[in-house]
Amino acid sequence: MTIWTPELDDGGPRYRRIAEALAEAIGRGDLASGEKLPPQRQLADRLGVTVGTITRAYAEAQRHGWVESRVGSGTYVRRSAEEEDTTSFRAGQPLDRGMIELGMSLPPPHPLRAQGLKRALEAITDSPEALRAATDYQPEAGSEAQRARIAAWQGGLGLPDDPDRLVVTQGGQHGIQLALQVLTQPGDLVAADALTYPGFIRAAQQAHLRPAAIPMDEGGLDVDALARLCARQPPRVLYTTPDLNNPTGARLGEARRERLVALAREHDIWLIEDAVQYLPQANRGTPLVELAPERTLHIFSTSKVLAAGLRIGSLTAPERLLERLGTAIRAQSWMVPPLMVEAACRWMEDPDGRELLRWQIDELAARRRLALERLAAYAPLSQEGSSLIWLPLPTGRRSSEMQALLARRGVKVPTPEPFCMGSEPAPQALRLCLGPPASREALARALSIVDETLSEAPTSPWQTL
Ligand SMILES: Cc1ncc(COP(=O)(O)O)c(C=O)c1O
């Protein structure tokens, strides 16, 4: 039986602090799913509180769904999301029973995520003014007050913080779509790193744009290759993720950023800077939007910081594009639902939201260390602060074969195919997302399966003929 004894922070009622300490211990993996909690009297004695305080704390934790009490037996950590088959999912598809998801780029699960949203929604329902604003039409770009609050939050994260150039979006994908809508015409040439976020590739296809894949290496986009393309035919737009390429994790070096901006100025190229893959500020380079604010559209989103389902993000653009952006939003859906913008703003302002981000940064750092250690034999690539691992496969191994074998063994990963901007063959590699597993234990299990599968001899493709 666990003798779990939390260290309690100051502030707030004790029962709530104990319940929150429980949530954190579960999130960190200190308390495993299904584990029995100490009997109430024992914990009360250890913490020097009354049994009533512990009863209330356990009841609070149960109310949030973190623990469950079993009559006559005690209180147990609720089975993890994964064991309840909620870790693995593909958007719009049924959950895959028992799979460990390493394919979707999501922040690590934590009970504070649901709690943050709950508190934000409760605060809205308690505020007649917020309710009234949420039921009204608002300006297309978002209300002035909400834009200012999102800008202030972004400023705290070291991201663009000018509310007058910020448009509220329904997440990063919407930001990409809006940017393409106002910048391009069908048939325009759009360039991006040869391997890039599939959502951009699909949006460009849907807008009937012509793709140009720019070669890349560990230092990011090859700016000389872009210069050669510009000499032949400058693209209208360059889309890039300079701080963290998705899928390879490459970061664009400072000198390349300067050259890229110079080229963009010389050939009048618009830059779309996608910063959705959140990295702590210390791990980022100089934003393109800072180097070339007159031609850069900067995209951010709450998806990797608060929750993907919120669908709230921002597009920071040069002033001369704001009217066109407003028209595009109005033509699509009039505005982003103000209720969701308000929920996101309240959550951004909740001190627990900041606490959650601090936890997430530490948790992802621990997960990254674990992955780099477990897979060290295969020279995995991952920059500090990232939740992605790029794993070039040993000679003779193929991504599709690995994907199929891992799926059979309960681990979901994508192949690099959907990340290919052009028609060059995809590299034989895997991208592992460290965020989605319910706990570090689940991640460790998945990594062992990846390791074992890689260490076996390749399977024969004859079987499938
Ligand atoms: C680089 C990049 N841009 C945009 C998105 C989409 O973000 P959102 O979920 O906010 O639409 C993702 C999602 O993984 C991404 O990796």
Question: Which descriptors apply to this entry?
Answer:
465 residues, alpha/beta, Arc Repressor Mutant, subunit A, Aspartate Aminotransferase, domain 2, Aspartate Aminotransferase, domain 1, 3 domains, two-stranded antiparallel sheet, 16 helices, 42% helix
Short description:
The chain is of the alpha/beta class and 465 residues long.
Describe this protein's structure.
This protein has helices spanning 14-28, 40-47, 51-63, 111-125, 128-134, 144-156, 172-183, 198-206, 223-232, 254-267, 288-291, 322-333, 338-349, 351-374, 399-408, 440-455; strands spanning 67-70, 74-77, 100-101, 166-169, 189-193, 210-214, 216-217, 220-221, 237-240, 270-274, 296-301, 313-316, 388-392, 411-412, 429-433. A seven-stranded mixed sheet has the order 4-12-11-10-9-5-6, with helices on both faces. Helix 10 links the parallel strand 9 and strand 10. 45% of the residues are buried. It is of the alpha/beta class and 465 residues long. It starts with 13 loop residues before the first helix and ends in a 10-residue tail after the last helix. The model is unreliable at 84-96 (pLDDT under 50). It has three domains: 1-79, Winged helix-like DNA-binding domain superfamily/Winged helix DNA-binding domain (Arc Repressor Mutant, subunit A, Orthogonal Bundle), CATH 1.10.10; 115-350, 3-Layer(aba) Sandwich (Aspartate Aminotransferase, domain 2); 352-464, Alpha-Beta Complex (Aspartate Aminotransferase, domain 1), CATH 3.90.1150. Bound molecules: pyridoxal-5'-phosphate. Pyridoxal-5'-phosphate (PLP) binds next to helix 7.
